[in-house]
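Appendix B. One record, verbatim.
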Amino acid sequence: MFEINYLLLVLVIIMLLSVVARRGIARIMTALLSLVIFAFVLMNNMNYTFNYSNIGILSLVFQLNFVSSILLLLLSFVGIYISIRFKATPGFQILTQFLMISLVGLFTTRDFIIFYIFWEMVLIPTFFMIGMWGGKNKDYAAMKFFIYTHVGSVFMLLGIFTMYFQEGASTFNMNSLISGLNNIPEVYQAFVLFGFIFAFLIKLPSVPFHSWLPDTYVESPSEGTVLISSLLSKMGAFGLLILFIPLYLNSTFSNSPVIAEIIIALGIFSLLYSSFVALYQNDMKRMMSYASVGHMAFITIAVGGFLYLVTTNSSDIIAEKLLFYGAVFQLISHGIIISMIFSLVDTTEKATGTRLISSMGGIARKLPGLSFLILAAFLASVAIPGFSGFVGEISILLGSYAVLKYYLVLVLLGVVLTASYHMFALQRSIFGPYNEYLGDIKANKNELYAAILPLALIFILGIYPAILFGFFNLANLPFMGVLP
């Protein structure tokens, strides 16, 4: 067993060594920190609860469950990939390590106040990543990101305090507060549910709470965009899967599917809206930012569908499992695919001097290796069979049919639009006659070699997804041991 208190201590020591060490060491330390997190997940069989003595009203209970294990594996991959692919400054590497430590605490704690502290700690390194190394509108993007996410966090904190005081609790232990939610007046229950889902939908993000995302992704440095797109959006998804689902099912509103239907509607609207907007983008980085919103919309649809089936006492256990496990698989698949895409967009911009799709054209004639990788990444994003994106999306689509029936055609329309803007971008950028105005272009070979790592994982998970789920006992569907 690898105790989590030792894990956090080791991670902090690694970060401090990066602070005091000389240039170049911080990059190695980021990879080392990622490997330690990977070892922690494996050594605890990806499922373990750590109980320590309370400190006053704080409950020092940490849990490694199904969803948190998946996200920590994604976290370790992104950390290793960042250290291999990007030659970021030591300051950026230290902020990356601080971000990863915060996410480890966030994904494992079972105390609401500690959860909120880690939730807010993530804002600190992200704000400085954007504000210090971002583009020309970095200050605007950094402030917009901070304000949006912090406003959502405030409502979540108010929801936490509402549960604590209304229930007359003695600690902020998640299991205790969640199980007692239905004992307080309905108006307070409604406020608690609103506070949590508002914070989670902003961080996911879901339309119409998404407008911070395109500016943040575009103005962040490329390595920052990889981190934010692959990890920060997973905070909202983690909250929906691990906190909002049990909160909703332990409230008196669980007798009605109305809230579940609203969540499904938001997911479908988010998918369609982001797809239409992406279709008209000329900046490849901004286009893929909206693509990320569309992919995360599948998580919202899955959560809403899962809640609908449970609240209507459906006996369709297969559909419930497809939705829940499909959503979790979509988390890690999206994280790997979007990391590869944004790093390739960075390589393309360095090679051609532009991110504008209309200013490219025929680059496959000069850069066949880069073009092949872009094509593979875009096909993975479209969710072509054989790629990891297909496994998560087809699972959610199949599970959603039990809920949506003929309305599923709206989701399928979003899938078609997603394929449309990806293919349209490929046609104008890498295919066709070469744009001679680009001159003699060359791509960094080391950056191309680095992209093989995520591509290999995308293929492996797409062809043999059981390699990921085989580590878990999938019979334990209800929140994977999160609730007693």
